[in-house]
Design brief:
single chain; about 140 residues; alpha/beta; Rossmann fold; five-stranded parallel beta sheet; 5 helices
């Protein structure tokens, strides 16, 4: 995808290296889809994949990502506890959800919330997902 379709030019991220992203998603097929989508975004690279909080902690002990895409609903985990833990490590978090129109507030420790791309609507969702990720990164880094 060309950077012309983005709401801003991501060159500041590309000057040194791609931003590293840890994906935390319990559904294996969605984790794979997110990996493909994120690796397809210019200026981003998946640094690790985790199916749960335990695996995410292991990944964080191995390498520190620039930010985390965290599934909002993980079986047996509290996303709020994980958010607090990641926030204490100073790793920004973007929540991802399958709920099309969430009615609950996004926790303040998260940069924001993004609806995951869908299998049937991948081509249109890919562009939306990319734009929303970069808008939240821009917000976090106060670029503009």
């Amino acid at each position: 995808m060309s950077s012309q379709s983005l709401p801003f030019q991501p060159e500041p991220f590309q000057a040194t290296r791609p931003l590293q992203v840890l994906i935390v998603e319990d559904v294996e097929s969605m984790r794979g889809l997110l990996e493909v989508v994120v690796n397809g975004i210019q200026g981003l690279s998946v640094s690790g994949l985790a199916a749960n909080g335990w695996e995410a902690r292991i990944e964080l002990s191995r390498r520190r990502p620039d930010f985390i895409l965290l599934d909002e609903i993980l079986p047996g985990e509290s996303e709020l506890d994980l958010l607090r833990e990641f926030h204490s490590l100073e790793v920004p978090v973007i929540l991802i959800t399958g709920i099309q129109q969430p009615t609950h507030d996004c926790p303040s420790l998260a940069l924001g919330r993004i609806v995951k791309p869908g299998w049937k609507t991948l081509e249109t969702d890919r562009k939306r997902f990319e734009n929303e990720v970069f808008l939240l990164i821009k917000k976090a880094h106060s670029i503009g």
